[in-house]
Amino acid sequence: MIKASAPGKLYIAGEYAVLEPGHPALIVALDQFITVTLKEADTQGSICSSYSNGISIPWTRKNGKFYIDERENPFSYITKSVTLVEQYLLELGYDLKYFDLTIESELDNKDGRKYGLGSSGAVTIATIKAILSLYEINYTSELLYKLAAITHLSLNSNGSFGDLAASSYGGWIAYSCFEKNWVIKQLKEKSPIRQLVEQEWPKLRIQPLKAPADLRLLIGWTGSPASTTSLVDQLNDEQNEIHDFYHQFLEDSYRCVMWIIDAFKESDIKKIQQGIRINRHLLKSLAEKSRVNIETEALTDLCNIAEEFQGAAKSSGAGGGDCGIVLFNQQEEILPMINAWKEKGIVDLPLQVYKEKMTDYEPIIWED
Ligand code: PMV
Ligand code: MG
Fold first, then answer.
1. 185: left (phi over 0), alpha (psi -120 to 50) or beta
2. Which atom of ligand 1 is nearest to the CA of 226?
3. Residue 173 φ/ψ, nearest 5 degrees
4. Which of 46, 292, 339, 350 maximizes the CB count within 10 A of its CB?
5. What is the 159 CA–ligand 1 centroid distance (Å)?
6. Across-strand partners of 262?
7. pLDDT digits over 155-171, tens only?
8. CA-to-CA distance for 151 and 129, rounded, in angstroms?
């Protein structure tokens, strides 16, 4: 039996701008996981998760390819991951096996309410890890990220795939998305996956960052779920209308996140906090111009309360609900803030940044 886990994520800075290739975001992996259990099977396989209400859905192969009745498929991220990894395995010359998959998630709360911690990214990474392990293939974080990104690309995701980078690398990362059109072109030209994952992808940058020892991250949950896909769609619809403003926003966000990345390298907490405040301001003006509700009233309460207690706060990710983040210096008292949050119905999520292994912090070059 094989067990593979992948962590959830949280955006710290650079949201929306990161949708543009080459524009950096700061993201962390969290110690809440999706775990995939894989058991080899004989003549057919099955998948079972909370998405199927705990019921096992069978799958088989048609003409040597993974096949599940689409009418019975509540988990497209899992099935696309299997299809893509099996294509990769065939190219490497492996004979395919059947298996039963069970998926367990800590990324939603007990009533099934969503925190917005990236379950679609984590389930993709954990599934890919489990299958590669079945064939005893050693994998790097980069290979996991690239296979997962191709999977999400073929599901027409409108995201930046930063969730996949955080979930496969762990810790704090600076991330910029690759040129999607370039990868789509390779796929259309039937470039083998084996070859594609070995190539350099234009504009893709994933740089692990070392957080200052005294930097403390707090996460506040507003209790109302938000859909990243639809918020990003809303912004895309508005983009032409606010073309000049958006261009300036991209440039300002680029400079702001690069400033925060420098502050990480200098271990300068005050400078990091300053960057977070500037990024909140940039996102607020984007929300105002585009009329996309990024910092909701609850998120404004969350941020303003945090600021009263010396924290630097902003909405996290697409906003519109879900979570906000606060960065503190470890020396500061945080209990009074958590109590003030409680009065406004904001829940402190007691989560930590997750790091799997020793990380190489070699700086990489960012360019436009
Ligand atoms: O709301 P989240 O945590 O899924 O973050 C979305 C961040 C965006 O930049 C708005 C979209 C993306 O895919 O990068
Ligand atoms: Mg969200």
1. alpha
2. 1
3. -135, 150
4. 292
5. 7
6. none
7. 999 999 999 999 999 99
8. 14
Considering the entire predicted model, what is its pTM? 0.95
Q: Which two tokens stand for residue 165?
A: 């980078």
The number of the ligand nearest the C-alpha atom of 162 reads 1
Calpha distance 125→350 (Å, rounded): 23
Give 303's Cβ-side CA count (13 Å radius).
24
- Which residue's CA is the closest to the ligand 1 atom numbered 11? 159
- pLDDT tens per residue, range 132-158: 999 999 999 999 999 999 999 999 999
Instruction: Report the range out of 89-98, 108-117, 348-357 with the highest average pLDDT.
Output: 89-98
* 19 CA to centre of ligand 1 in angstroms: 8
CA of 204 to the centre of ligand 2 (A): 22
For residue 17, report the distance from its CA to the centre of ligand 1, in Å. Answer: 10
Please, what is the angle between helix 228-238 and helix 269-290, to 10°?
60
Mutational test site, ligand 1, from 9, 11, 115, 283, max ligand atoms within 8 Å of CB: 11
Q: Name the nearest CA neighbour of 271 among 327, 320, 224, 229.
A: 327
Contact 317, 10 (CB under 8 A): yes
Q: By alpha-carbon position, which residue is closest to atom 7 of ligand 1?
A: 317
Domain annotation for the chain: domains and CATH numbers: 2-209 (3.30.230.10), 215-349 (3.30.70.890)
Write out the E strands in the chain: 2-13, 25-41, 45-49, 56-62, 65-67, 98-105, 172-176, 205-209, 215-221, 312-315, 323-329, 347-349
Under 8 Å between Cβ of 266 and 36: no
How many angstroms is it from 354 CA to the middle of ligand 2?
19
Nearest CA to ligand 1 atom 14: 160
pLDDT at residue number 108: 77
**pLDDT at residue 83, rounded to an integer:** 96
* CB contact at 8 A, 122 and 167: yes
Mean pLDDT of the chain: 94
CA trace torsion 25, 28, 33, 36 (10° rounding): 50
CA distance 353 to 135: 30
